[in-house]
Each structure stands twice: as structure tokens, then as C-alpha cells.
Amino acid sequence: MPLIAAATCQHTSCDLRAYGERYGIDYRFPSLSSNAAGQAVLRGRILELVPATGMQLVASDIEVLQRYDSRSLRPSPLSIIVMLEGTAEIGLGGQRLVLTSGTALSLRLDDREGLQATQLPNQRIRALTLALDASRLAEALGGKPPQHGSHLHAWPLPSYLQQALEQALASPLSGATASLQWQGLALQLLAHGLPSGLDASTAQFSPSEWQRLERVREQLQAFPARSHSLAALAELAAMSPASLRRKFQAAYGCSVFDYLRDRRLALAHELLLQGHGIERAAQCSGYQHANNFSTAFRQRYGYPPSSLRHAD
């Protein structure tokens, strides 16, 4: 598996613009003045791998020092973006969403619309992007021509796959074993990201519908500990409960309450890492009983919350 580049250093706005010229990305730095070209925007490691012919994988482990915005300028047959840690604000046409840890995004871009993203400062971002060229995508589709037009689809990353990606990033990146490992992981990402994102019939939403669905998602994102009902969320979205259930699943790749559960567990994970005990993390993330929380946590992450912090 060729290792194109590996760097652990500070990256300035000039560095990112050079990177953007290579990959067709326009970077903007709203918090930097015009004479601050040499100031570091992010610090960390960016790895560029080729797991198989027609595939490219970019893995980032960075600390964002200054806000930066980006917009893609080139069409993309298929990209799958995985967020392991951190958040990014994503936009495509009338669609807006926040990509959070444990979520992934399947993305197709034509030459008319570019993906917009905003990375806010004072956070660590660990993310992977798998990109396929047109011939590799056609092969994955069994010879069928890819669909046209820009499209994005968010979906929850299975806990076992997230754990496997974490382990692979912590292991040596060279050698035959690493090559086979990354080929397998790339194919697993493709298996999860392709059907729901590009190959299945998915509902198309107007900008108004996306805005109303986003109101629901943002409510769950901002207040995971609250007791949410489908009826109240449907009223917020100005939809019937049945319509909200169906459209939320089509838009985000999971049910309303699967999204809420993953958001609660992500919040609890953050609290445990900050030093809070299990009882406190459970209560602050909306769980009334620590036993139920511990069971859900183990199912989501593959290990018990006690492995991060001991109970109060």
C-alpha cells in the first residue's frame, strides 16, 4: 500500500492553499488578517494512503487552531467522510448538517455544486475520507453507470467499524498486513456508505423540508438529555409523526431515536473522558438508570464505560 505522505507539523494558511490546489479545494480563513499568511491554522498529522487501485484515503488527526472554511471545486463520483472525533459544519445546496463523532457522510458531487465545510477552532478532529474514481465506482456498482447530480447522505458509523478504524490508525501503516487491513476497511466503508448514499432510491427534499428536518436534528443535538417525544418533534418539523419518521430515516440514515441515542452516548463518552463518573455521565446524557446506560454504552463502543472512568 503506497504511503503518499505523512506529516506531523503545523500547517499555515499557505500550506492549506497549496493542498487545496492539489485537490481542488478553496480554503478561506475568516479569522486571519491578510498579513497573517505564516500563522498556523492547524497542527497535527495528515496521512494520504492508496488502499487499492482507484481508491484514495486521507486520514487526519489535527488540532484546529484557527477557524477555516472550505469549498470543493471538482466533481467527485463518491467520497465517504468518517468523523471519529470532533465536529464539522457541512453544507450542500439547501442541505445543512453537523458531522459529529461516530457519523459518516456519503457524498457525490457534480461540477455545479461544491461541498462547503466549516471547522471551528479549539477542537481535535480525527477524520478519514475515502474517495473512489469513476471506474472503481462503476465496478462497485456492478457495471451500472453512477447517478448524476450532487447528493449527500449522513449515516451512523457502526461501533465495530469505528473500533477497527481506530485500531488501524494506531498500528504501523506500512507492510503487507497493513495493506490488506486498509483494503478490507475501505471495502467495509464502501459496503456501508454506497447503498444508502448512492445506489438506493432515496427521498429528495426541498430546501424547506431540509430546514424543518434540521430543526429536529439540531434539537436532538443540542438537548440530548431531554425527554423527546415523536409527536413534539413532528410538531417542530410541521409534519405528521409518520412523515417525520420516514423522512428523517431517509435524510440521515437512521431513525429519530437512534440518532438521539447515539448523541446521548457521544455526550456521555465526552463527559467520561473529562473525568466525570458513570452516574453523572448517565444522568447528564438523559439516562435515568446507570445499568441501562452501561449496556447501551457497551453496545455502542464495544467496551464498558468503566474502562474510561470508575463509577462515583
Structure in words:
There is one protein chain. The protein has 312 residues and is of the alpha+beta class. The chain contains 10 helices and 12 strands. It has helices at 13-23, 134-140, 159-170, 176-199, 207-222, 230-237, 241-252, 256-273, 278-284, 290-301, and strands at residues 3-12, 25-28, 40-49, 55-64, 68-72, 76-85, 88-92, 95-99, 103-109, 116-119, 123-132, 151-156. It has a 7-stranded antiparallel beta sheet. A hairpin with a 5-residue loop joins strand 3 and strand 4 (55-64). Helix 3 (159-170) packs antiparallel against helix 4. The longest helix is centred in the middle third of the chain and has 24 residues, at 176-199. The N and C termini lie far apart (46 Å). The relative contact order is 0.11. The model is unreliable at 1-6 and 196-203 (pLDDT under 50).
